[in-house]
Amino acid sequence: MTINLFIEILEQGLIFSILGFGVYVTYKVLGMADMTTDGSFVLGGTVFGSLVAYHHLHPLLAMAFALLGGAAAGLLTGFLHIKLKISSLLSGIIVMTALYSVNLRILRGPNLPLFRERTLFTIVQEGFTRIGLQTPYGKLVLLFLLVFGLKWVYDWFFNTKLGLLLRTVGDNPQLLAQLGANQDHMKFVGLMIANALVSLSGALMAQHQRNADVNAGVGMLVIGLTTIIIGLTLFRKRDGYWLRPTTMIIIGAILYRTLQAFTLLLGLPSGDFKLISMVFVVIALTISNEPWKERLRTKRKRLAGVREEGWRVKDSITQKSV
Questions:
Q1: CA separation, residue 320 to residues 307, 309, 311, 313, 317 (Å)
Q2: What is the mean pLDDT of residues 272-288?
Q3: Would the pTM count as exceeding 0.90?
């Protein structure tokens, strides 16, 4: 593996980890699979691309609007699910489908090249050049600081009163009611935070690829779930986890991207990767399922009993021979 490929894996893995942060909120905290993810990921890229290319806005401001766009998408999904009583899955599908047309309108076409536009990455590279430091690692440094800064804010938020209330939505809704918090309001907050993070990931990917594309969001929910499942499965122990969920998501995203790179290095068609990754997801989900784990525990106990019985028989034979 060349150093350039390794750097590329780390960069895209860090971007996907932000996607994983967002999906974790809906999948683990709220206990729902939000299909809005596929649309809000693209929305982040299209909002950023159009504001930078057509309106010449500063990249930081464009990123802020991309975040707001993702939050608005989450708010709309919440309105359909909570106020109009449409199922969470169907609400996400409706918003995702609507966002395809919205993204086409924003982008004024199916894709928008950003090779001539200033991005956060080009600004950082210019900063390194200005101080006389020629390095190809400007993107990686920026992403590292951004992702671990987000991780710190994410961990801090979920230890605040609002964050703890949000965590009870999926874990214990009865406790949430006893605490006097409104479950519907918490779901709105969760969906907005989740889709804002997903949109931020999409904006960063558009800058990384130097291209905003309306089809870039296909399978993003699956990628987000994969990064979470890989991380949580690898670092799970009997009574909890070794690491914080955010750390596990970052590692899971980098491992996911590494798996994708090795698939290409083996000469397999790029279209086969989704099938291969789904096999890994099914294995990870099966291992982490409680019925499967209970079956494994029962099997281990049975084997331990057989071994103990074997030793007992061996000891009795030895005593008789003596």
A1: 20, 17, 14, 11, 5
A2: 72
A3: no
